[in-house]
C-alpha cells in the first residue's frame, strides 16, 4: 500500500502535500522549493518538468508546453484553444476526437498527457522526500470546471500512475486547510485567483462540517490573462519603437510575456520596475533591438483593472445566489498566486469590507486541504477527525427540448449528491424514439451550453403528448453524472453515465501512462 497525497494541479504552478504523523507536510524539491511550474519541456531523449523546464521556455518555446490546464477537457473550436494556438510557439491542432492536441518534435500530445507529466513530477517529489511509494491522490480542480474537464483530470491522474481518490474543488480544499482542527463556526468566502482560473465559494464551517452554500467562477480568468494583457501593451510599445509588426512573431511575444510576468511579481513588492530586454528582437541580419520601459503600479493597474472588476462581479453574483450580504461573512480567504498582488487584495478587501485572513499560504492552502482529505479517505486511525464535506454542483444540468431550449433539472449550487426527476411528453405524432441530450451551463439555449452526452429511448408510436417519459438526473459525491429515461407506461428504460466527449480514448490513456512512467526528468532535455 502506497501513500496518499494531495495535489494542487495548477495552471501556472503545482504543489503536493501529505499528512504524516498528524502533521501536514508540503513537499519540497531538492532545492527546497514548495511549488513547481506546470511546464513540460520535451527533448530528443527525455522530458523535464518544473523549474528546469521553465528555464527552457525562452530558449526552445516550440518544444516547451505551459498552461495546458486551460485546454484540458475542451473542444478544439473553443475560443480559448484558438487564443492559445495564436500565441503559442508549439503547435496546437485538432485531434481526431475534436479535442485540442499539442505537436512537439512531430509527436502529438493531449492536454491530459501534459498534466500527467506534471502530476508524475509531483509524485516523484513527494516520494523523494517521504521515502515511500505514492500511488493515490486527491487532486483539486477549479470549482467551475465542467464534467469533461473533471473527467480529463482523472485521465491525467491515471497517466501519472495515480489512483484518483477524489476530485476536490479548489476553494473547498482551501477552506479545509483553513478550518481543520480549529473547531470554528463561521461563514467564509474563498476568493481563488490562480494562474488560469478564478473561483469564489461561500462556505459554512461548523466544527468538522464544511458546507458549500454557493460557488461561481470563470475558467478563463487568471494570472495568464494578466500576463498576456500586459505583454500585449509592451508589444504595442515595441512595435511603435521599431516600426515593425510582431503579430506573427511568437519569439518576441514570448519574451514580452516573460517580462510581463517578472514585472508583475516585482510590482507586488515595489512601486515600479525596470523592464530591460537587451535582445527583444533579432532581425534576420542578426541585428539586436533592445526594449526598455519603466512600469509602475498605476499604469499596470490601469491595464488590468477590467480583469479585477470581472472577479468582483462574480463575487457579487455568488453572494446573491447564496442570499447573503457582506455582513453575513466572518472571514475572507485569498487563495492563488494572483492574490499576492496589492491591487487584487485591496479590491477584495474593499468589496467584502474586511481585511482578508492571512493564516493560510495562498500558494499552498489548496494542496494542504487536498492532503487532509486524502488522509481522511485512507486513514484507518480511529482518532482521525470524521470531517464532512458537502459540496454543490457548480453549473446547471439540463436537457434539450423543442426549439433548442434547455430545461433545467438540477440548478447550479444544488448540494450533491442529489437526484432530480421530471416528466416530458412526446412532441410529434407517432414518434418512435426520444433523444435525450444532456447539457451543462447557464444558457437558456442549448447552443450556449456544453453538450455532455446523449442517448435514445425507444417509445411506442402514439399521438403526441400520449407518451410520458420520466427523465432522472443523479450526481454522486464525486460529481459523476448519471441520466436515465423511463417510459412511464411500459417501464422501458435507457440510461447513460456521462463520459467525457472527445479527449483521449482508454487505449491512448494506457499508452500515455507507459510513456510517462518511462520518461525521466533527470536527464537534461
Please bin the fraction of helical residues.
Answer: 25-40%
Query: Number of domains in the coordinates?
Result: 3
- The unreliable regions are none
Strand fraction equals 25-35%
The first-level CATH class of the largest domain is given as Alpha Beta
Q: What does this 3D model show about the protein?
A:
The chain is α+β, with helices and mostly antiparallel strands and 525 residues long. It folds into 3 domains: 3-221 and 318-391, ATPase, nucleotide binding domain (Nucleotidyltransferase, domain 5); 223-302, Alpha-Beta Complex (Actin, Chain A, domain 4); 397-497, Substrate Binding Domain Of DNAk, Chain A, domain 1. It has 11 helices and 27 strands. The chain has helices at residues 51-56, 79-87, 111-130, 147-159, 170-179, 223-242, 250-267, 297-321, 342-352, 365-378, 506-518; strands at 3-8, 13-20, 23-26, 36-37, 39-42, 47-49, 64-66, 91-94, 100-104, 107-109, 134-141, 163-169, 185-193, 198-206, 209-218, 272-282, 288-296, 331-335, 388-390, 397-400, 406-410, 418-425, 433-440, 450-458, 468-475, 481-487, 493-497. Strands 1, 2, 3, 4, 11 and 12 form a 6-stranded mixed β-sheet that branches. Strand 16 (272-282) and strand 17 (288-296) form a beta hairpin. The longest helix is centred in the middle third of the chain and has 25 residues, at 297-321. The radius of gyration is 24 Å and the shape is globular.
Amino acid at each position: 500500500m502506497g501513500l496518499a497525497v494531495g495535489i494542487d494541479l495548477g495552471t501556472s504552478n503545482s504543489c503536493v502535500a501529505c499528512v504524516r504523523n498528524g502533521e501536514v507536510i508540503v513537499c519540497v524539491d531538492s532545492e527546497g522549493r514548495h511549488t513547481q511550474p506546470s511546464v513540460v519541456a520535451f527533448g530528443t531523449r527525455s522530458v523535464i518538468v518544473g523549474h528546469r523546464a521553465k528555464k527552457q521556455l525562452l530558449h526552445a518555446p516550440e518544444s516547451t508546453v505551459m498552461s495546458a490546464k486551460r485546454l484540458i477537457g475542451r473542444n478544439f473550436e473553443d475560443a480559448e484553444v484558438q487564443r492559445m494556438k495564436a500565441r503559442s510557439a508549439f503547435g496546437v491542432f485538432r485531434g481526431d476526437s475534436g479535442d485540442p492536441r499539442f505537436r512537439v518534435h512531430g509527436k502529438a500530445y493531449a492536454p491530459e498527457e501534459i498534466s500527467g507529466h506534471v502530476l508524475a513530477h509531483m509524485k516523484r517529489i513527494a516520494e523523494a522526500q517521504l521515502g515511500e511509494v505514492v500511488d493515490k491522490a486527491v487532486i483539486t480542480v477549479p470549482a467551475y470546471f465542467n464534467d469533461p474537464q473533471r473527467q480529463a483530470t482523472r485521465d491525467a491522474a491515471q497517466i501519472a500512475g495515480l489512483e484518483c481518490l477524489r476530485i476536490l474543488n479548489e476553494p473547498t480544499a482551501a477552506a479545509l486547510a483553513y478550518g481543520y482542527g480549529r473547531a470554528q463556526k463561521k461563514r467564509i468566502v474563498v476568493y481563488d485567483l490562480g494562474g488560469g482560473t478564478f473561483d469564489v465559494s461561500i462556505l459554512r464551517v461548523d466544527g468538522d462540517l464544511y458546507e458549500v452554500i454557493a460557488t461561481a467562477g470563470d475558467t478563463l480568468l487568471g494570472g495568464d490573462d494578466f500576463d498576456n494583457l500586459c505583454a500585449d501593451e509592451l508589444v504595442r510599445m515595441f512595435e511603435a519603437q521599431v516600426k515593425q509588426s510582431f503579430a506573427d512573431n511568437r519569439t518576441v511575444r514570448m519574451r514580452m510575456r516573460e517580462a510581463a510576468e517578472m514585472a508583475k511579481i516585482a510590482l507586488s513588492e515595489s512601486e515600479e520596475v525596470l523592464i530591460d530586454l537587451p535582445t527583444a528582437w533579432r532581425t534576420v541580419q542578426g541585428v539586436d533591438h533592445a526594449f526598455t520601459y519603466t512600469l509602475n503600479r498605476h499604469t499596470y493597474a490601469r491595464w488590468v483593472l477590467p480583469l479585477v472588476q470581472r472577479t468582483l462581479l462574480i463575487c457579487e453574483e455568488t453572494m446573491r445566489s447564496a442570499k447573503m450580504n457582506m455582513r453575513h461573512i466572518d472571514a475572507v480567504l485569498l487563495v492563488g498566486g494572483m492574490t499576492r498582488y496589492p491591487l487584487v487584495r485591496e479590491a477584495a478587501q474593499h468589496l467584502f469590507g474586511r481585511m482578508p485572513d492571512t493564516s493560510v499560504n495562498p500558494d499552498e492552502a489548496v494542496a494542504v486541504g487536498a492532503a487532509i482529505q486524502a488522509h481522511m479517505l485512507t486513514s484507518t486511525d480511529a482518532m482521525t477527525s470524521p470531517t464532512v464535506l458537502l459540496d454543490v454542483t457548480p453549473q446547471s444540468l439540463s436537457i434539450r427540448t423543442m426549439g433548442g431550449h434547455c430545461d433545467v433539472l438540477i440548478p447550479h449550487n444544488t448540494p450533491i449528491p442529489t437526484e432530480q426527476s421530471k416528466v416530458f411528453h412526446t412532441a410529434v405524432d407517432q414518434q418512435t424514439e426520444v433523444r435525450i441530450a444532456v447539457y451543462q451551463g447557464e444558457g437558456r439555449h442549448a447552443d450556449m451550453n456544453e453538450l455532455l452526452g446523449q442517448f435514445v429511448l425507444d417509445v411506442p408510436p402514439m399521438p403526441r403528448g400520449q407518451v410520458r417519459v420520466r427523465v432522472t438526473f443523479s450526481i454522486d459525491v464525486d460529481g459523476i453524472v448519471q441520466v436515465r429515461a423511463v417510459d412511464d407506461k411500459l417501464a422501458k428504460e435507457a440510461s447513460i453515465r456521462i463520459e467525457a466527449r472527445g479527449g483521449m480514448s482508454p487505449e491512448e490513456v494506457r499508452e500515455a501512462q507507459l510513456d510517462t512512467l518511462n520518461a525521466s526528468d533527470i536527464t537534461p532535455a
